[in-house]
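I hope you will forgive my troubling you with a question about protein structure. Here, with my thanks, is the record as I have it:
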Amino acid sequence: ALGAWFVICLLFLVMGLLFWKRRRLAVPFLLFSVCFFLISNALSLLFLYDTGRVVVIGDGTTSNVVFIDRFQAIVFSCSDDDYIDESTYRYLKRMGIHQINTLVLLYPDFEEYQDTVNLAEAMPVQNLLYDPDNTACRQMMEEHAAQIQPIGFGSEIQTTDGFDASFTVHDHGEKFSVQINYHGCSMLLSSCLDELRQTQAQTVFVSGSVTDLTEIKAEHLILLEKQWRPVLCDQLYETAEQEAIQFEIKKDGTCSRIH
């Protein structure tokens, strides 16, 4: 939205320059364009301040889930994929985010780590949560986060404006679930099929390779990884490939898709 306002203001500025020789027209045009931009910028910031945003950022193979709450960014990374962190960095920068409140690495291996390190260097990380089996992660990321700790049963994330997330570990640490709530809007990010089928969450993010998603009831169902085989499902689902899937959550808990 801010980009559209900027283009409109730029058009007014160009018109003002074109009429520069006619001072009586040029000066009002220039003043109007500057005031219009400042007001629209303030309204855009107020709009972002009053809503939360959930974004699924994909690179064609896998995806990160990003929650933005009053310019605080919480990033959930489900796969050890180098390119997805670069895509996440570009999106956050475009949104005016300069630091990551919490970075959650939900995978047990840390082989493709360079872009993750680059992301943390470019955007300081306040809190880092990682899979307890991912010992290499702690060694590589210890210098890039103010606080770092492994994910355990009952681990939580909370912000000052109503966002909270709680973690559950399944199958001896091989699968996970993250129950997310924001002003009454419930979301689930999980790789555990039983948890996915039992959830009452409005928005469900499925991690990992799957073949059968029947019995899952959700308003929005999103697969975070590209599936190479057909998936059985009772409803339509989406995958984030080359563009972001974005949701806006208002303070009354209403969740709507941003197209």
